[in-house]
């Protein structure tokens, strides 16, 4: 019975907008003539597949369908998704100094344990969080990044005569940690998409290492060659 009920609810989700909340469990149980245990199992099915999200103290929220981001050498996250009519926002969460690991040093052509600056941003689409991105640069670029307080980093650097080109991307998937799940408003059993990206300037110098973590139910990557 709960599977049949899940199918009904799945079809009805087309009538909701992303961010809407379902009616309360008591009301839904009365409407379908089932007990709350059966209703919860039906909702659990949709939560597990990423269509719904339980938010403690608020209810059950409807999630957006996956969006497609076309990855090319010079594509910019904000520009690409804005072109689809979406409201794109990049919030600066953290700015900190760190040291290059051996792998990072090899990618950027700097010494291991060389000082680096890291910017952590949260990307929102139509006010819904979808991606966390950790951008790392050699600390020598800190003065250039000093005025960055949010928005497209690609655009920020382009306006300062440092356009970047993506030269390597590695796509993977894993479960989110507790902090990532909280910031992205996603269940911890749902895999997150990860992308490691190396970008270079016009002279071919490696400038940026970026590691993004995105909701797999909200995001699809299309690799364009």
From TrEMBL:
Gene3D superfamilies xrefs: Chorismate lyase-like, Winged helix-like DNA-binding domain superfamily/Winged helix DNA-binding domain
SUPFAM superfamilies to which the protein is assigned, alphabetical: Chorismate lyase-like, Winged helix' DNA-binding domain
Top-level lineage group: Bacteria
Start and end residues of each HTH gntR-type domain: 1-65
MF terms in GO: DNA binding; DNA-binding transcription factor activity
Assigned keywords, A-Z: DNA-binding, Transcription, Transcription regulation
CDD domains, per database record: WHTH_GntR
Name of this protein: Phosphonate metabolism transcriptional regulator PhnF
Lineage of the organism: Bacteria, Pseudomonadati, Pseudomonadota, Gammaproteobacteria, Pseudomonadales
